[in-house]
Amino acid sequence: MTMNRRHFSLAVGAAATIGSLRVAQAQGDTPLVLGQSAAITGPAAQLGIQFQQGAKLFLDQYNAQPAAGRRNVVLKTLDDGYEPDRCALNTQKLIEEDVFALFGYIGTPTSLAALPLAVKDKVPFIAPFTGAMSLREPFQKNVFHLRASYNDETALMVKHLTHLGLKKIAVFYQNDAYGKAGLDGVTLALSQQSLKPLAMATVERNSSDVAQAVKTLVAAKPDAVVQVGAYKACAAFIRQARKAGYGGTFFNVSFVGTQALADELGKEAAGVMVTQVVPSPYNPANALTREFTDAVRKAGGGASANFSSMEGYLAAKVLTEGLRKTPGKATRDGLIAGLESIDRQQFGGFEVSFSARNHVGSKFVELSMLTGDGKVRT
User: Fold this and answer.
1) Residues 6+ apart with CB under 8 A from 268
2) Which of 38, 52, 322, 378 could form a Cys-Cys staple with 338, CB 3.0–4.6 A?
3) Local structure of 270: helix, strand or coil
4) Comparing C-alpha atoms, which of 215, 222, 265 is closest to residue 241?
């Protein structure tokens, strides 16, 4: 499958949200509003845009098939530019507007800024696009994670590399809570084999100033570099490291944004590895993939198929299943109870399992590799 367009209009997105609200209201019921703070502009914009696109794709389908007594669900997205302070302000605004739940927040530092507000007001906080353990521990009754953790992702990377006899592993990471979460995962996985990171270097959030990091890590001559950053910085590091003569392998965690990274690198993407926490949107052997790509096709030009949009689609699908299982009228406590009743349930072959004491729905992780012609192999 070919890669898709990279830029979408904020005005169109806002109009679509307003349109969804009007449709829902026209059907006679006040819709349930999900509040999302995400990067829609800035260097991490494609992550927010793609996740939002996938979630809206599912919700449009869901709302188009009204059932007796069921309220429509719409997504209201506020742009935070992947900055924690803006995310906190957005979250306060959404809570004051009495949104039904907070959903699909993009990133660790932003989600961490929102979490205390969600916990304080007991607002469900569903499917943040992050694998940081700091959002999972300690356990919070109103917080649900769909995806595997960064510890799960980095453990697979380290296992794969050491199985090949490659033990000199360096880490390039974003200098914030996200990067530290990935670094901790790599360090933990290596320590279990009595190893340590060979070298480490950082980049600031929303920056592509990687020159010093390239100099530091290339000089260390690692077998592989694990990258824990957003797509623009990781792409810049890969380009500059290769230009400096580095011939090793690059591994990225899923948050990098596979499609966005492939778009940034073009032909230079060949051989770059990315861990994935949802099945491939390009492999029709998966029932979920067939359902998702069929929805993309039917939606026409406003939708695209990639890992980030597929995660948004799946997250919205799981949330509405929690609503379906809600006893009686839709309430926040009912949604929490409904989600907790999802036990080893298949969503097109993707298993999700919650309980009263487990709010991490999946530990699924697999490796993928980018090719020079814009494709992704798993």
Assistant:
1) 235, 238, 239, 242, 372
2) 322
3) coil
4) 215
User: Which amino acid, residue 186?
Assistant: V
- CATH architecture under which domain 10-148+283-352 falls: 3-Layer(aba) Sandwich (3.40)
DSSP letter (8 states) at residue 72: P
How many Å apart are CA 188 and CA 1, to the nearest integer? 36
Rounded to an integer, the average pLDDT of 148-168 is 98
Query: Could you tell me the end-to-end alpha-carbon distance of the chain, in angstroms, rounded to an integer?
Result: 13
Count of beta carbons in the 10 Å neighbourhood of residue 11:
8
pLDDT tens readout for residues 48-71: 999 999 999 999 999 999 787 789
| Longest CA pairwise span in the chain (Å) | 65
CATH 3.40.250.10 fits 150-276, yes or no: no
CA distance 81 to 61: 28
Integer Cα distance of 107 and 234 in angstroms? 15
Rounded (5°) CA angle 254-257-263:
140
Provide the phi-psi class of 31: left if phi over 0, else alpha when psi is between -120 and 50, else beta: beta
pLDDT tens, 233-243?
Answer: 999 999 999 99
Q: Tell me what percent of the chain is helix, strand and coil, each rounded to the nearest 5.
A: 45, 15, 40
| Integer CA distances (angstroms), 199 to 132, 173, 195, 226, 252, in order | 22, 11, 12, 11, 16
Residue spans per domain, the chain: 10-148+283-352, 150-276
| Integer Cα distance of 360 and 155 in angstroms | 17
Which region, left, alpha or beta, applies to residue 39 given φ > 0 means left and ψ of -120 to 50 means alpha?
A: beta
